[in-house]
Recover the amino acids of this structure.
């Protein structure tokens, strides 16, 4: 800005520089080719009857809105959508509540203990989700799984040894919920902790001197300060959990009886198991539209939280 | 950390005698109770922390524990919390029967290509979006944020169709390209942050000395954003290394599988329900990622909130 005042010509010249164009073009071309063109093609495909036959013959017809009509009258779709919304809500609430708790816990610990918890968090976070899904199947294995053994030892639920978690809708979902929350908490906890350490200590001290209870200090001062971060983390979690695919696919394949089949699983099954690619594309378009709405919230908050574009 | 301030210093001067009495009473109570209360709070916090740590590390511990057990010890009705006869047998199985090195090579080729390409492209693009002012910059930034959020499952169908028409399905190049698309917006976003942190004066000084735009970039700016290059390389590495669904859809020939697909098919392909083998393979696969997470943990939080590795 100062430059503008001293020498307006300098900035003008810079503005006309072609440098940004050639700096941006390579990345721009790749993004257009690999992301934008496919999305346009996705919309196009959703209006065709592209299927397995087409993969060999290349022949397909335009079917207008038929795929969308099929979709909107298909109870499987509506159930997948309902499940996705419900699952996302349950996972986000679980991970945000635990994450907020752990973040606050970190502020209460001595250096050594805090280091231990941080390392533990990073281990859980760093596990690739394909590996963690396999570990989950092993933990919840009927007969030899350590979770079933542990639950049996509690003597609360009776003999759980041979319970097959993948055979029951509720249990199957519970195990996936635990897997997602287990891996989501570290990011949330560490992000919130970083924000929590920025709160000026004098504020809390003053409130304590005025006789406020710890809970009130937390609720009135800490949570107020954490609000923007908390909101951002929540929106991101919603987007990520809405998109969860690997863990569900690897742990339950959407089963039993589609009980854990979310939109992602439904799309994948339609497009790559049944090879109804046109129909799958229509589901993807709807999924993406919902996601775009969520993304708008995210971007608006990023801008509001001071990220300058 | 929390020494009690003497009354009157650093706090507001009480207006009435009544108020003053109330404050001093509360303070006296605080000072009296504080050491004991704080000790108790510390004790409770530590207990919760220990319980939490045990629960949260358990899956990792159980993976490692099982990986070092002989089969007879892994499949017992009463779980054994330490291997009685630790063995590398499972790892040997992963390397020999599982052909770990072949899939490691596949993953290495694709991931290395994707990381190098996305860093190079991202470096130039983020320089443009941070060190230059031009019309439409804001629009481009928003656009990048939006494409970054596109769900992998939605891109999968059209990418699969387009790539199969131009013969890229099943090739390293095709998979690499899909990964570049997935991580490029994010690397641009992260590196841009590092560029913005460089003071304008540095660039101006170089310009006054007669450096061209290219020289300013390569001699001055790029070396200064090295930490950003490293951080976003690690992010790109993790995203590409962990991907399952794209690789699973694109690489139909088993000899071209990448590690995650190999790992997921390990059960049925080679060893049946050999959990020891599966866990050993999982350890091998997770190790580099966990190591990287440890190294860049400081950058992780700020980077992830800017959009991040897709969960």
């Amino acid at each position: 800005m100062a430059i503008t005042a001293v020498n307006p010509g300098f900035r003008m010249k810079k503005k006309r520089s072609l440098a940004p164009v050639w700096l941006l073009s390579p990345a721009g071309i790749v993004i257009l080719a690999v992301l934008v063109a496919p999305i346009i093609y996705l919309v196009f495909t959703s209006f065709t009857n592209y299927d397995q036959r087409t993969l060999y013959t290349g022949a397909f017809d335009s079917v207008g809105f038929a795929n969308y009509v099929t979709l909107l009258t298909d109870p499987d779709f509506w159930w997948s959508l309902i499940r996705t919304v419900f699952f996302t809500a349950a996972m986000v609430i679980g991970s945000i509540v635990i994450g907020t708790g752990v973040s606050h816990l970190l502020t209460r610990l001595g250096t050594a203990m805090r280091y231990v918890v941080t390392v533990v968090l990073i281990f859980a976070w760093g596990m690739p989700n394909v590996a963690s899904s396999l570990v989950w199947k092993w933990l919840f294995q009927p007969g030899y799984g350590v979770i079933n053994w542990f639950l049996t030892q509690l003597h609360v639920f009776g003999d759980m040894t041979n319970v097959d978690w993948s055979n029951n809708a509720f249990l199957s979902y519970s195990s996936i919920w635990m897997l997602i929350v287990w891996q989501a908490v570290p990011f949330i906890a560490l992000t919130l902790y970083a924000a929590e350490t920025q709160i000026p200590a004098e504020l809390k001290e003053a409130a304590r001197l005025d006789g406020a209870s710890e809970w009130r200090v937390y609720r009135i001062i800490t949570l107020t300060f954490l609000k923007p971060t908390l909101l951002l983390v929540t929106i991101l979690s919603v987007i990520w959990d809405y998109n969860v695919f690997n863990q569900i696919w690897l742990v339950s394949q959407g089963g039993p009886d589609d009980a854990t089949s979310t939109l992602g699983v439904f799309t994948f099954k339609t497009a790559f198991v049944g090879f109804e690619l046109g129909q799958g594309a229509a589901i993807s378009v709807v999924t993406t539209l919902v996601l775009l709405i969520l993304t708008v919230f995210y971007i608006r908050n990023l801008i509001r939280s001071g990220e300058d574009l | 950390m929390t020494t009690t301030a003497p009354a009157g210093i650093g706090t507001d001067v009480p207006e009435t005698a009544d108020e003053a009495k109330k404050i001093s009473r509360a303070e006296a109570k605080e000072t009296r109770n504080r050491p004991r209360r704080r000790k108790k709070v510390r004790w409770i916090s530590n207990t919760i922390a220990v319980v939490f740590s045990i629960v949260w590390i358990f899956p990792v511990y159980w993976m490692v524990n099982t990986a070092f057990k002989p089969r007879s010890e892994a499949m017992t009705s009463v779980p054994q919390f330490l291997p009685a006869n630790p063995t590398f047998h499972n790892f040997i199985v992963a390397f020999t029967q599982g052909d770990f090195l072949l899939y490691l090579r596949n993953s290495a080729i694709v991931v290395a290509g994707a990381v190098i390409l996305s860093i190079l492209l991202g470096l130039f693009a983020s320089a443009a979006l941070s060190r230059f002012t031009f019309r439409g910059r804001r629009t481009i930034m928003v656009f990048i944020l939006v494409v970054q959020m596109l769900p992998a499952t939605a891109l999968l169908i059209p990418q699969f169709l387009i790539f199969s028409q131009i013969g890229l399905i099943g090739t390293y190049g095709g998979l690499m390209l899909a990964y570049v698309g997935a991580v490029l917006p994010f690397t641009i976003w992260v590196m841009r942050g590092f560029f913005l942190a460089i003071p304008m004066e540095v660039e101006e000084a170089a310009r006054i000395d007669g450096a061209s735009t290219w020289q300013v970039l390569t001699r001055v700016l790029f070396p200064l954003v090295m930490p950003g290059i490293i951080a976003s390389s690690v992010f790109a590495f993790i995203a590409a290394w962990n991907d399952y669904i794209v690789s699973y859809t694109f690489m139909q020939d088993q000899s071209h599988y990448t590690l995650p697909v190999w790992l997921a098919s390990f059960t049925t392909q080679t060893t049946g329900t050999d959990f020891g083998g599966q866990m050993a393979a999982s350890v091998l696969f997770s190790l580099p990622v966990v190591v990287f997470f440890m190294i860049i943990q400081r950058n992780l939080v700020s980077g992830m909130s800017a959009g991040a590795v897709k969960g």
Summary: The CA atoms of residues 132 and 217 of chain A lie 38 Å apart.
